[in-house]
Amino acid sequence: MKLTTKGRYAVTAMADLAAQGGQAQVALCDIALRQGISLSYLEQLFAKLRKAGLVASARGAGGGYTLVNAPGETRIADIVEAVDEQIQTTACVPGSGLGCNGTSVRCLTHDLWDELGRQIELFLNAVTLEDILAKRVAGMASVNAPAARVAEPAE
Question: Do β-strands 55-58 and 64-67 pair in parallel, antiparallel, or remain unpaired?
Answer without folding.
Answer: antiparallel
